Amino acid sequence: MQPGAEPSAAGSAPSPFQPFRHLLIVGVGLMGGSLGLAARQRGLARHITGYSRRLSTAQEALSVGSVDAVSDDLQAALKAADAVYLAAPVAQFPALFQAIETSGNSDLIVFDAGSTKTAVCAAARDVASRGVGGVSPWYFNFVPSHPIAGAERHGPTAANAQLHVGRTVVVCPHEHTCDPALQRVEAFWQAMGAMVSRMPADEHDRVFAAVSHLPHLLAYSYVHALLQTPTGAADMQEGGGGFRDFSRIAASSPEMWVDIFLDNRDQTLAHLDRFMQSADLLRSALKAGDRQTLLSALGQAAAFRGQWRGK
Fold it and tell me: Which of 146, 174, 199 represents a domain boundary (last residue)?
């Protein structure tokens, strides 16, 4: 379980799940496509429609079996659905929330795959507050979620029905999330084979800036830096296991990660500053030939990493 997380009310045992009547997946790349494949295989939705800004992308998801049908009309698809999974880049979420608002589907359950939560919740609240009576009905059915699963490959052909099995999904209910929607979404994730934990949105963003957002930023930075040297591209062809392990996530979707970095910039910058302080310490020690400082810092890191077992 991630630091600060609490187990869901459902506990570790999967809750019975009644399939969604019509699940709409917005964004049918790795995350959306994987969820669609698994939901189809496990019978968790009677019908699944895929939507993408580019119809050709949705049709590719259809061809690999992630969805039952595709739509090029988001409003019509939202009106027909009883649940929508937002797996698009987080920069698109405000417009998607606006589309949900104008669809008039007050019974729609909304959940997502966004890697940031504070800004996503604020965007949803901003759109919902324009509704009649102060808060739109769909906002009560919004269950912010973050599957801690992914891969460096992206696009519809990267979909993997086993992506969520045994992985954690962090759920960050906001102040108005209603219990029936929360329990239904948590039961869905458990039926997908995932483990569910709850965490406040601000705590989520602090934790994942440290263990996800900063590592991705460093991997991109490392590869980019090597590419700025005349022999960098050729040098990387000689890379072995260490290069492969460290640089793997730099192959992830740039569009998605730019949005994540900007959405959670304050927390990411705070962790980046701490990293740079450590890097400066090691640089100074290396320049001075200070073996003891290097050995102490490397030993502390190696001792922790050696006993870490992860998820």
Answer: 199
Q: In angstroms, what CA-CA distances link 90 with 112, 121, 159, 178?
A: 9, 11, 19, 23
d(CA 246, CA 117): 26
Pair 115, 158 in one domain: yes
3-class DSSP assignment, residue 264: coil
Bridge partners of residue 220, in order along the sequence: none
Give residue 149's domain range. Answer: 6-199
Residue 266, H or E segment: helix 265-288
Instruction: Provide the b/e sequence for 201-221 (b: ≥16 CB within 10 Å).
Output: bebbbbbbbbebbbebbbbbe
The DSSP code for 211 is I
% of the chain surpassing 70 pLDDT = 93
Q: Which two tokens stand for residue 198?
A: 């709850």
Whole-model pTM: value is 0.85
Instruction: Inform me whether the pLDDT recorded for 1 exceeds 50.
Output: no
Tokens of 190: 């458990």
Does one domain contain both 281 and 172?
no
Question: Would you say residue 219 has pLDDT above 90?
Answer: yes
Q: Do residues 124 and 142 touch, judged by C-beta distance below 8 A?
A: yes
3-state secondary structure of 48: strand
Give residues with Cβ within 8 angstroms of 205, minimum separation 6: 116, 117, 118, 264, 267
Is the domain of 44 the same as that of 121?
A: yes
Domain count, the chain: 2
Percent of the residues in the chain that have a pLDDT greater than 90, as a whole number: 83
Name the DSSP letter for residue 212. I
**Residue ranges of E strands in the chain:** 6-7, 23-26, 48-51, 69-70, 83-86, 109-112, 142-143, 145-147, 168-171, 195-198
Tell which of 199, 217, 239 closes a domain.
199
